[in-house]
Amino acid sequence: MLTTNPFDDDTLHEECGVFAIYGHAEAAALTALGLHALQHRGQEAAGIAAFDGKTFNVQRALGHVGDNFSSQEVIGRLKGHAAIGHTRYATTGDVVLRNVQPLFAELSVGGFALAHNGNLTNNQKLRRRLVERGSIFQSTTDTEVVVHLIATSLNNTVVDRMIDALRQVEGAYSCVAMLDDAIIGVRDPNGVRPLCLGKLGDVYILASETCALDIIGADFVRDIEPGELVIIDKDGLHSRHPFPRAQRRFCIFEHIYFARPDSVVEGTSVYEARKHIGAELARESHVDADIVIPVPDSGVPAALGYANEAGIPFELGIIRNHYVGRTFIEPTDQIRHLGVRLKHNANRANIAGKRVILVDDSIVRGTTSVKIVAMMRAAGAREVHMRIASPPTTHSCFYGVNTPERNKLLAAQMDIEEMNDFIGSDSLAFVSIDGLYRAMGKRSRNTSDDQGYCDACFTGDYPISLTDHDNGSGATVSRLAESA
Ligand code: SF4
């Protein structure tokens, strides 16, 4: 039986990273490197489209960037001075090539390639309307709706058509696109997903995170603003703000879990933010203990912050095996039952006889926490106290993160005491929503202003309409429409 990594089944998945570059002879090779740095944002598939002055060359593949875009042969086929790329995590089981991005279309106004991070919340409604008017969809990804809206727009230029299309969509998007004479970067008016601008010499780059700039030695210039559209062509960079102004609602989970800790997103170091959250957690939920142990890898910065604030030694009590592949063949139920140890094992010498504080970034279904707590006890821990560097995840995300449906979220079904019993820990505590905002430099959630965050998976306060969902299509956005 082929299954996904059993330790990751309980984690949230980001659903895409994007990268674009204009005006470099090695555009595709640099895009492949950028995507490699963004691999954590999507591991199911990747694609690159390049333009050589005459032809759009597109290569898309299932699997990791390194497995598909590291050979000279492949990169050599992607000739051109401009390129865009995409890494993808699909929300539903079947990952098929036709859904892999960048999407490419020959429009009446020229070739057009598009890569999208986010999720459109009126995708079903728009798709139905387009199909009724004759559009023939090739994929099930919501990104294709944007391509059809652009194709059917009556505006004269691709840029105006793209603006026209994006004015009709709802939801979260950070997109990069490529035309025959430019690349484009655009963020939705709330700025839910990240997109930054970098420079390598005179060459402009767009990327989901700054770690994709670092890998190619590019400098960070600035974040693309919410609602901003930038066009990069032979004359440089042109910025437009074509959408109605809206409140900034950057995904706070990017800071908690999704973004790489060496990235700086929205002016904040992800690593520092996670340490601050850990420190808040320690102030809010102190417990006497001998050691603080992170659940690797994403729990490490928060555990460091916790340990520093609490004055309790930080120890690596769980060791991660980095050589476990994304998939693993597990021949029997009995062996599958042991699956969690494929990737992580208790560092027994550190744990035996100790009172342990385990720090993790979040609890989704809770199955991973059950296994880790049991692992600590089997290694001889005297007490196991679970501390979570986010508030309870009580709601699903509809803006580009693959969360389970609400009835599968542990915190939507149980209170903290019940969760503690379920997990088997001696105590369980989450950072409060105000503590999370304090860690992000705000006084509290309520004092958050125009520089605010989306925190809907903790509060149910969805900042952008859920048109498909509210129309009675249930969880269509997350289940039926594969998002980018
Ligand atoms: Fe991020 Fe949660 Fe909002 Fe989704 S619902 S965008 S994961 S904060």
Account of the protein in words:
The chain folds into two domains: 13-247, 4-Layer Sandwich (Glutamine Phosphoribosylpyrophosphate, subunit 1, domain 1); 270-323 and 330-440, Rossmann fold, CATH 3.40.50. It has a seven-stranded antiparallel sheet with strand order 5-4-6-3-12-11-13. 30% of the residues lie in helices and 27% in strands. The chain is globular. The chain has 484 residues and is an alpha+beta fold. The structure holds iron/sulfur cluster. The site of iron/sulfur cluster (SF4) has 11 residues, from helix 8 and helix 17.
Task: Describe the structure in brief.
By secondary structure, the chain is α+β, with helices and mostly antiparallel strands. It folds into two domains: 13-247, Glutamine Phosphoribosylpyrophosphate, subunit 1, domain 1 (4-Layer Sandwich), CATH 3.60.20.10; 270-323 and 330-440, Rossmann fold, CATH 3.40.50.2020.
